[in-house]
Amino acid sequence: MQAFLLQVTFLGLILSFVSTYNTCDNKFAGFFDCIKQKTNQQQTYSSLEREFDDDHQKLIDKCFASSSSEAQSKNMCVLDKSTLEVDILGPNGPLRSCNFCQKIAKVVHDKYFKSTPAERQCLRRHMIDAAAAEIQPCMQSKLHDFSYKVPTIPDFDSAADNLMQLVEDSLRHRIWVQSRLDVCSQVNPGRATNTRSCLDRGFPGMYEQTCRMINECRQSTTQANCMSRFDELHRAACSCLKEKREELGNKVEKLKDALMSSTSSSDCTSKVEAAAGAWKTKLIQALKDCYSDGGSQGISQIPATKLVEIGCLRATQMNTNAKKEFAIGFRFLRTFLDVMQDRGTRFCSCQN
Question: Residue span of the signal peptide, if any (predicted)?
Fold first, then answer.
């Protein structure tokens, strides 16, 4: 009888914890809604976007040298302010030795920045949903809670349509940082390591307005008994975002290796399929759903497997110079994806 009562009591405690977690997890969704309401305001969004870029430029001043002599004394990589304003897609940008890459990068750039607000919103929705699906099993594992469901994540960039120049400026500055780090790591790995460490550390008060907004939403939407669960979810989400960011970068590297090292089209196709996984289909579907022309001149009308076959056929026919350009293009793609993810992971700079 005593054993039975202990079992009932234990079961009751488990159900109590589950009930509390469900209630608290719903508050996490409310937190997202609060952030969405605030970022929907044009003035607030503009201020946050300026802070995102301004604070990053302060970090550049702190972590990079502005000249070769300063780089030697500080043991840091070089990046002067004038370079930050150079067009990343132009003849003096990171792709300057690859005309083909410049053309491809411009197509990708224009497909987003010169599309309609509705098309951009649709594309962001697809990418947000895909990212949520990716991090859910990771969060479940870290939380040891396989019933946890990532709530619907709003589009926090919906107010950006009248501020696209701000977004472009921020993107350009971050691409230059990553590009210089890549070059620096090849020439002087020690300086690159020091510079990266400095960038990772940030500085006190970085993204102060963003962090204040996050804390306000945390306090206003989360009951006292849910604070620890909220912080647990926040830590798990940020940890998973970091892991998935690294995984995506590795996927790009594997794609590059598959296309550049394969000796036959069939070998290349199987390697690309393994590296790209479900992201290939998701991207093609996003282009099909979001663009009235079918996405990149009707590219989405071609089956994903056929696109891979065409790409692999061309890749196996590349000469040495073409392969060099290909490598430059993939390095830029990885950088572009990395800095785009900065826009979401900045919220992780404010963990309690």
Answer: 1-20
